Amino acid sequence: MADPLLRRRVPLVCGDFAGFRYVELGPDLETRLPAWLAAGRVEDGEELAGSHVFRSGPHVVKFFPGPRRRRDLFRPPRAVRSADLALRLDGIRTPAPYVALGPRRRADRRAGMLVMEHIPGQPLTALWRRDEAAMDALPRFLAAIARRGVLLGDFHLENALWNGAEWVLLDLDGIRHRGHFVHRCKLIERQWARVWNALGRHPHVFALFVAFLAEAGLDWDAKAAWTRIMRRADRWGR
Questions:
Q1: Distance between CA atoms of 151 and 184, rounded to whole angstroms?
Q2: What is the pTM of this model?
């Protein structure tokens, strides 16, 4: 049976590219898609990350490299997979996808493109010890991710954004679903090692970690887990 959440998507063809739209497109956005695809960038947009993520008004446009491995030729484009995952993450706020497109021909290795909602906000490092509501909500946010069985393969703090009311998970490209329990433990500890380093190794981070364990329903030895987290953080350096 088809995933009911994906019924929201509507097939869309744009020249040599095909994929889906997830909302009704306004004329301004629809007329700009071909130019963005042809250039592989947003010429009049603001660069947000390297040369592959741009902001254009209320939209964020992310370009994905074409298939690199043979097996990728037989899978949906990465832009489509990322947009579909955003629909499935109920209970975790993510930017709403608008359009996801990839080359129509499997052998075509041109970049795909995802257009999504722009959400203003601030990263954790800018809010640390300045916004009590954001700090209180952080363990619940990371616990919701853990309960959903979502594995963040390369979690960075700049991918978590506080919009004034809730935390938003920005980059879904490194996410995997329902991984092996051992990998899950390691990835959770990796997340907290990044938090520990990024927040200057302040003692209060351990209290956030304990609150996270309670919210996530994880019956871990908090002190033993925290010792492993600090060792991992030491290997990465300050």
A1: 6
A2: 0.84
